[in-house]
Amino acid sequence: MINKLFKSLFFVFIISVLLTSCVDKKEVTSTSEEKNKSQQSEEIISEIQQRETFALNTIIKIQLHEAPEFSDQDWEQTFAILSDIEARMSAHIDTSEVSEINKNAGIQAVKVSDDVFNIIKRAKEVAEETDGAFDPTIGALTKLWQIGTEDEHVPSQKELDQAIKKVDYNKIILDEKTYEVFLEEDGMSIDLGGIAKGYSADEVFAFLKSKGVTRAILDFGGNIVVIGAKDEASDWRVGVRKPDRMQFSVFASFYANDEAVVSSGDYERFFEEDGVIYHHIINPFTGYPTDNGIRGASVILKSSMQADAYATALIVMGKEKAIDFIQKKGLEAALIYSDMSSFHTFEDERDFRLEK
Ligand code: ADP
Ligand code: MG
């Protein structure tokens, strides 16, 4: 219990440090009178407007640096995007569309909404591209480990062996005409935890842009999306966390502009049993958390959803395959290894700098 509390406090700390390392500290607290006034004008203001919420199992922090003044209603609309995605896509919510698909595994196809269909389709494509390093049917395994819940524990080898057989993206049957999803085998389970946060950041990005936001930072845990540049003179300087479970520090930083920087790592969620640490990125072939020398991976792309799935996949692949994949795809990505050495393919203009 104390351990859990510590972990969540620690997480809050990480987020705030990461953001303060990126931005000025000027903040706006507006009165309701001011808000009413602002609803009538679309004047762009450059004071920071900032809100936080908890969704998709993560602290979500949004800072608008150049935007029309946001009313409470605008913020509600922004956060409703997240709660709506979570309500339909979470495998942990019994009434979600994903849970409906899972309950009907081996029984029948389930009709889902357009975006649930499309995200599963994209997840399956990434599984194909990554030879199953990223596999959205990882649910059979993640529901055994239950990492991040009160019931997290090391499953028995027998349970793991049985669950591995139920992880196979080829057995997700998608009907493009009816928007139905069918899991061919009983016991299969979709878990979009490695991609849904990225998707939701893309959706919020599009919404904020449609509202006239021209400079902003979206911090969805390891998923950072920046809108525009920091100011006329400079792009955003984004920091990547050092893979250290005990304390926060910035490992490296680089410039980004109007794009997503998504990081995955074995330090995000974990638990300890009998002196061994188990984390939340699972190798679909062994059933265990990865342990291959890659501690963290970051990917820069326009699509946060794509970057999210790739970052998870790179951690699973191991060094050789990950580098091969990055090069083959021409990805801008970074890998951080157990000995704290690193590899990256970021463009020179990003000014990638290791912090000390
Ligand atoms: P985070 O959610 O901490 O940002 P990731 O994007 O790497 O980290 O996602 C980890 C989540 O993805 C896990 O909690 C689990 O739900 C899911 N997952 C774990 N292993 C895999 C895998 N091999 N393929 C696809 N999804 C995975
Ligand atoms: Mg991911």
Describe this structure in words.
This protein has 356 residues and is α+β, with helices and mostly antiparallel strands. Helices cover 35% and strands 25% of the residues. It has helices at 2-22, 32-40, 72-89, 97-103, 114-129, 139-145, 157-164, 196-210, 304-317, 319-329, and strands at residues 44-45, 49-55, 58-68, 110-111, 172-175, 180-183, 215-220, 223-227, 236-241, 250-256, 259-265, 270-273, 276-279, 294-301, 332-337, 342-344, 353-354. Strands 1, 2, 3, 7, 8, 11, 14, 15 and 16 form a 9-stranded antiparallel β-sheet that branches. A 3-stranded antiparallel β-sheet has the order 4-6-5, with helices on one face. A hairpin with a 4-residue loop joins strand 5 and strand 6 (180-183). Helix 9 (304-317) packs antiparallel against helix 10 (319-329). The radius of gyration is 20 Å and the shape is globular. The model is unreliable at 1-40 (pLDDT under 50). The structure holds adenosine-5'-diphosphate (ADP) and magnesium ion.
Identify the bound ligands: adenosine-5'-diphosphate, magnesium ion
Q: Which residues sit in consecutive blocks of at least 5 with pLDDT less than 50?
A: 1-40
Number of strands: 17
- The average pLDDT value, as a whole number, equals 90
Largest β-sheet summary: 9 strands, antiparallel
Shape: globular
How far is it from the N-terminal to the C-terminal residue, by CA? 33 Å
Element order: H for helix, E for strand: HHEEEHHEHHHEEHEEEEEEEEHHEEE
Q: Quaternary arrangement of the chains shown?
A: single chain
Helix residue percentage: 25-40%
Fraction in beta strands: 15-25%
Question: Which structural class should the secondary elements be placed in?
Answer: alpha+beta
What Rg, in angstroms, do the CA atoms define?
A: 20 Å
Number of helices: 10
